[in-house]
Amino acid sequence: MQKILPVIMCGGAGTRMWPESREATPKQFIALFGERSTFQDTMAMLDASPLFETPLVITNRDYAGVVAEQVAAIGAKAEIILEPMRRDSGPAVAVAAEIGFRRAPETILAVLAADHSVLDRNGMVAICAEAGAVASQGNVVTLGITPTFPATGYGYIRPGEKIGQKGNVSKIGAFVEKPDAATAERYIQQGYFWNSGNFIFRADTMKNEISRFEPLMAEKVAEAVSRAVRDGECLVLDSEAFGAATKKSIDFAVMERTDRAAVIPADIGWSDVGTWSAVRDLIERDLDGNAVRGDGVVIGTKNAYIRSQGILTAVVGVNNVIVIATPDAVLVLDAGQADRVKEVVDRLKADGRSEIISHR
Description:
CATH topology of the largest domain: Spore Coat Polysaccharide Biosynthesis Protein SpsA, Chain A
Helix content: 25-40%
Number of domains: 2
Distance between the termini: 49 Å
CATH architecture of the largest domain: Alpha-Beta Complex
Strand content: 25-35%
Order of helices and strands: EHEHEHEEHEEEHEHHEEHHEEHEEEEH
Number of helices: 11
Strand order of the largest sheet: 6-9-7-8-12
CATH superfamily of the largest domain: Spore Coat Polysaccharide Biosynthesis Protein SpsA, Chain A
Number of strands: 17
Radius of gyration: 21 Å
């Protein structure tokens, strides 16, 4: 079995998880479900399997310290690649492909998100191995999640013709944007998948596809890697070259344009943990659907989720509410409008409030 070089994308800001997630310490570094962060959970999964080589962690300078600390805290190892500035996921994937290509053109890479949750980790490893075999034939494989409800917050994938003998891998017929509820229901009935945003590919395949569709991105990323310098345990990409790379997501840069895209079903208990409602839905709750983490009390309440740091938080007679209390900010949220937390962050940013940057 060919080993896989995992790449953990670790640069997101996590604005929908404010006020715990802030620019200085975004959600991938927060212990949402236990003692470890989602980043550490991902690292631990990779470290436990002989399928994977030492991961590349692609992040930015601001997070170099916390990445190194969290990797060391679980006794794992990683090669940390630092972006001088954020350029979206396209250049980050291009960096991974370039590094993998320089090791060996046929290197298989798996691009994974640091802020996602996977309940079935053994299943995830098995899917990566199967996807790696498909990727070795020149396909760019994404993990398609079988929908469990008509989600309007995810992009969807329409599978096309089958690939290979097993019949569970398909060409991607189309990527479709986030739908309304009725359209999402129809997508489920038609066998569409959620787009997980995880990709497995050969280094030379992805490098060639980026060069084909985004030649400037490919050129500047190659320069940024060639001119990269060591800073302690980190590899710092060249700022001038990387800053000139086209700023574009890998979906728009390659995945929605290539004829090599494939999808493999992955029923692994996946969530992108994109909102506080998603966190609530993934944790154990009492018979009334309530969960409290920290110092909190609920009375006459159903389906409430309370997270309280250092301040007593009481909720009485209010259903389907989420309350996130930190020492310098409190969020009270209708669980059905969890996507709107970003609007709060945008307002605070416009007002110049420091509470979006760091904790007191």
